[in-house]
Amino acid sequence: MSILLALLTAATDSDARVMRMTEFYRDICLTRFPDHKSVAAMMAARGARELSQADVKVTMGKDPARAWDLNDGGATVWIEYPPFHACSVRWSASDVGNMDAYRAVADKYEDAIGEFSPIDPMEADQNDIHIRAVGEARTLPDKTQESLFFFEQSISDPKRRAAGETGFTLRFVHQYAPPEPTPQN
Known about the structure:
Layout: H1 2-30, H2 36-45, E1 49-50, H3 53-60, E2 65-69, E3 76-80, E4 85-93, H4 100-113, E5 117-126, E6 129-139, E7 145-155, H5 158-162, E8 168-177
Antiparallel strand pairs: 1-2, 2-3, 3-4, 4-8, 5-6, 6-7, 7-8
Helix pairs in contact: 1-4
């Protein structure tokens, strides 16, 4: 009985966290982004702590970005500057949880604007990490592509998984990508 209760509590905790992260994503990435000043003001109003550029570089490498810790168990908000202009909410979880809240927020945003269509799911392995992404996109008049993504990352190395690294890193992303370069003859 206690195992069942623990499993139900874990699922409830994961689902509640997905709900909170979905609310952050809606309020910050779908409502305020790409207005950087509005995002920064919202982060300050929420009491988020800005990450140092050294911390940002660990994740983003040479890509220009800014990030805040949401004071919610390691959850963060990231702004990536052009050419790939993006806002994301990221967090770690023991399981993925129920994504219905995310789907409802993404659907509402996409339906209000129109012209979004599903993009091919992406699956890739980078070193010991398996990455899966699903989402929708639309092409703007200037050929920029606006996309909404859900990324799920997990350790794929069997030894690391056996040692207990079985969780996920999850992120919701709102991105504006530049047009594909035109091939030169």
